[in-house]
Write a structure and sequence with these properties.
The structure holds two protein chains of two kinds. Chain A is mainly α. Chain A has a domain at 52-212: MetI-like fold (Orthogonal Bundle), CATH 1.10.3720. Chain A is built from ten helices and no strands. In chain A, helix 3 packs parallel to helix 6 and helix 8 runs antiparallel to helix 10 (214-242). The two termini of chain A are 17 Å apart. Helix content of chain B is 29%, strand content 23%. The two termini of chain B are 31 Å apart. Chain B has a six-stranded mixed beta sheet with strand order 6-7-8-3-9-10, sandwiched between helices. Chain B folds into two domains: 14-95 and 174-288, Rossmann fold; 108-172, no CATH class. Classes of the chains: A mainly alpha, B alpha/beta. Chain A binds chain B through residues 144, 146-147, 149-150, 152-157, 160, 164-165, 168, 171, 243, 245-247, and chain B through 69, 72-74, 91-92, 94, 96-98, 100, 102, 105-106, 108-111, 119-120, 122-123, 151, 153-154, 167, 171.
């Protein structure tokens, strides 16, 4: 609790420095408007309702891509973690694609999926996919053999062992991967909107930069930052709820 | 449910008169290191009678736990077989449960105490209410009725092993295999758990095979003790403890017979000359 006022103080300090640097015209205020102008712009966006459409666009794209990526990754991850043959089959291709910066895949995807929603969702799903996959495989493989033997001595079926033992045991690792993926997905959503979009927050930020609406551009960047914080907070709450059994 | 029987409290029934429930036949196990076969045990044969409490003792590394896991159907054997009620064991059979030494790894940490016991009852077509009642019944037996909604991390080590015992009993097995079940709890808790298991066993038809490295524990609890030798090990000797039941954690340990058995078994484990022991334990297995 003690950390919070200190953190708040550093935020205020940054805003103050920004205000001084811009207000004293140490940098061109046309390029860096002070917070005293960006603030009202944020307020305008929130109160006039002009936030609703771009926010809906961006979040629905994020939700679609992220969910598809996570579901596929957990599915394949469970299979790879349990079955050695599946692991051997997919491991090389995963290791090939995983380190690849996902934005590099956007141009080739244009060729196959066109410049549209399919490409955007695919790229976001790809960004979410790998961290969740790697952590799921790791999580499944690190389930204690004693736990698996416990399931065997009580003669639980393979599906029951999967649902009641392996998945919950691997869940902390999976959730950690999902948290990493969430940040990556948001990054790729914004990038995809900038490259492919005609809507969404990413598109707006780029569009305003091109039309030199610097104040509004910064206002949207600020809003995007807040969205990141809120998403992370929501995720942490979800994590605490789903892993409530962990001590402290 | 526990199967109630009338067990003669004072005289243990001779193994030879009871029916053999488990038969270990010429079991071998080993592994290969750099292409060389390293035997762990060779030609282990044992008959275990219905309702018997058998202790398995041996020096560390002799493969006691491996033997128990093969009996449980958790590990395949290299050669030989284990017959359970006349059928060879190839996978964990019904009516047999393995109790792990590492209770903290064997309990599901995301489940409450009650739900952990319930793990043994799921997939058996019981109604929710039946399951609930049986979970609570077995928690009562191990003295944890008040901790039904606690999670494992909120319990002490001894309590966690009690939950594991309750879960094993809830599966209503005919045979309970225990792998050093009390070695990870403190000395006082160990005495309590030993008495608890003996009480439960006395009130049921349960057959128990317990692997332990603790001579004292084996003599105190078992009807018979099978002693494994050095690697590659086989059954070196089988001893009938012949101590009266019910056994008392204090006075049973003061009986001359208890001390004599403990003495000769420790002598064997420590490989000391046995001349001060009045009678060597019989070399062969009595009732086979």
């Amino acid at each position: 609790m003690r950390k919070f006022p200190l953190g708040l103080a550093s935020c205020v300090a940054v805003l103050a420095i920004w205000q001084i640097v811009s207000g004293m015209k140490w940098v061109n205020p046309a390029l860096l408007p002070p917070p005293s102008r960006v603030g009202p712009a944020v307020w305008d966006i929130l109160t006039t309702g002009s936030i609703i459409d771009p926010l809906k666009q961006t979040l629905s794209l994020l939700a679609a891509g992220y969910c598809i990526g996570c579901v596929l990754a957990i599915g394949l991850g469970l299979a790879m973690g349990i079955n050695r043959h599946v692991y051997n089959m997919f491991e090389p291709i995963v290791e090939l694609l995983r380190p690849l910066p996902k934005p590099a895949l956007v141009p080739p995807l244009f060729l196959f999926l066109g410049i549209g929603i399919a490409t955007k969702i695919t790229i976001v799903a790809l960004a979410a996919f790998f961290p969740v996959l790697i952590n799921t495989v790791q999580g499944v493989r690190s389930v204690d053999p004693v736990l698996l033997n416990t399931a065997r001595t009580f003669r639980r079926s393979m599906p029951a062992t999967m649902i009641y033992v392996i998945l919950p045991a691997a869940l902390p690792m999976i959730v950690t991967g999902m948290r990493v993926s969430l940040g990556l997905s948001l990054t790729l959503v914004i990038l995809a909107e900038m490259l492919v979009g005609s809507t969404g927050i990413g598109f707006l930020i780029l569009d305003m930069q091109r039309s030199f609406a610097v104040t509004d551009m910064l206002a949207w960047v600020f809003i995007l930052g807040v969205i990141g914080v809120v998403l992370n907070g929501a995720f942490e709450t979800l994590e605490r709820m789903s892993l409530h059994w962990r001590s402290k | 449910m526990l199967r109630p029987v009338h067990r003669d409290a004072s005289v243990p029934e001779p193994a030879s008169e009871a029916q053999t429930i488990l038969s270990v036949q010429d079991l071998c196990h080993g592994f290969t290191v750099n292409g060389k076969a390293v035997p762990v045990f060779q030609g282990v044969s044992l008959d275990i009678a219905q309702g018997e409490f058998l202790g398995v003792l041996g020096p560390s590394g002799c493969g006691k736990s491996t033997l128990l896991q093969i009996i449980a159907g958790l590990l395949p054997s290299v050669s030989g077989r284990v017959m359970f009620e006349g059928h060879p064991i190839v996978a964990p059979p019904e009516d047999m449960v393995y109790l792990f030494q590492q209770y903290n790894k064997s309990l599901l940490p995301w489940r409450s105490t009650k739900a952990n016991v319930g793990f043994a009852l799921e997939g058996r077509g019981l109604s929710r209410q039946e399951k609930n009642e049986r979970c609570l019944e077995y928690l009562r037996i191990v003295g944890l009725a008040d901790f039904a909604d606690h999670f494992p991390w909120q319990l002490s080590g001894g309590m966690q092993q009690r939950v594991a015992i309750a879960r094993a009993l809830a599966a209503n097995p005919k045979v309970l295999l225990m792998d050093e079940p009390f070695s990870a709890v403190d000395a006082l808790t160990r005495l309590e758990l030993q008495t608890l298991v003996l009480d439960v066993w006395a009130k049921s038809k349960l057959t128990i095979v317990m692997v332990t490295h603790d001579v004292d524990e084996a003599v105190f609890m078992a009807d018979r003790i099978a002693m494994l030798g050095e690697r590659p090990s086989s059954v070196a000797t089988v001893v009938e403890t012949g101590l009266p039941r019910p056994r008392d954690p204090i006075s049973t340990r003061e009986l001359p017979r208890f001390l004599k058995l403990r003495h000769s078994l420790l002598n064997m484990l420590l490989k000391r000359p046995n001349e001060d022991s009045p009678q060597r334990p019989p070399q062969d297995f009595g009732h086979a």
